[in-house]
Amino acid sequence: MEITTAEVIPLSHRLPDGHGLGDARGFGHDRSTSLLRIETDAGHVGWGEAFIPGDISKATFESLFADSVIGMDPFEVESLAERSYTDPYHFGGSVFVQSVVSALDIACWDVIGKEVGRPIHQLLGGRTRETLVPYASTMYFTETDRPIADPIERAVDAGFDAVKIKIGTGVEADRRRVRTAREVLGDEGRLMVDMNGNYRPDQAAKSIRNIADYDIAWVEEPVPPENIAGYRELRARTDVPLAAGEAFYGRFEFKRLIDHRLVDVVQPNLARCGGLSEARTIAKLASTENVGVCPHVWNSGVGLAAAIQFAASLPDYPHTRNVPEPTMVEFDRSENPLRDEILDTPFDPTGGSLAVPQRPGLGIDIDEAALDRYRTD
Ligand SMILES: [Mg+2]
């Protein structure tokens, strides 16, 4: 089997003024990403995603990959990550290269699944669970005054019992937001907080101490992702679980987090970390230090599908039957037609459960007419 065509499809959805999504660092209005569509001489179409703006993924794909991908056998998928570290030499591990590798890798696995008639999780080592627990990413900062509890109330009403909220703008504000979330969620639900790297270690430590009595399942990016010494410092100064990884690309960066257990949970984004092949390597590295894995998802429906296939294949190490916490997948609750409209059948997280697709490959069908509404080229 050979890849006969490969096309990068840049997509963007702009949120209207006043409806930007806020984290501790500010507001964003742009939901841009890139899909990759490949076709093979066996008649299969495969989809992947590079979670970077379309003009960058197009240029990166065309200058570094297009020539070698046309004619490639998709079964050689794992060679993509290996090649990316040596060719291009010195910058193969960068976000733009690894994101394009991610798209290619996911699209190849989609095609392999279709060729052999199996869902990707079976090809990654087998299904370990039939459903996954989606956690709702919600309670973003808003540009206009709105009741802060509204979005988390809607998530809980929809059946979510695991929720992640944005904090990170000051110790007292953090406590108010966490208190609100815990009141809505109740005592039993899992509550995660995301500081989006907006603190120095001393500030993060102070805030963590101030919210620790609300039973926080993890604190995400308490300090900037590149501040490895900051994570080490927080390790020593706090005892709330830490999580990071959405801004890491490839196994070597993840190894820095995993070595010495600087975090409790690594969060590879399937459309940036190098794809399913590299995520599997990262998960194996994590297991060597008994670090948890929970994919970060802020992607289109394609990246979400890849995260679900990946998470469904994760072993429950070190647990056998008595798994104290379920494997979760992030489910962003904000408006994003690139997640919902481009799939013939969008994923349904209501009831606090996500079914793992059992059809071949990613197990999704793309509505190509819907793509045209968000294409930027
Ligand atoms: Mg985050």
Notes on the structure:
The protein has 377 residues and is of the alpha/beta class. The protein folds into 2 domains: 115 residues, 2-Layer Sandwich (Enolase-like, domain 1); 234 residues, TIM Barrel, CATH 3.20.20.120. It is 37% helix and 19% strand. It is built from 13 helices and 14 strands. Strands 6, 7, 8, 9, 10, 11, 12, 13 and 14 form a 9-stranded mixed β-sheet that branches. A 3-stranded antiparallel β-sheet has the order 1-4-5, with helices on both faces. A two-stranded antiparallel sheet has the order 2-3. Helix 2 packs antiparallel against helix 3 and helix 6 packs parallel to helix 7. The protein starts with a strand and ends with a helix. The mean pLDDT is 95. The structure holds magnesium ion. Magnesium ion binds next to loops.
Task: Produce a short descriptive summary.
By secondary structure, the protein is α/β, with parallel strands linked by helices. It contains 13 helices and 14 strands. The chain folds into 2 domains: 3-117, Enolase-like, domain 1; 122-355, Alpha-Beta Barrel (TIM Barrel).
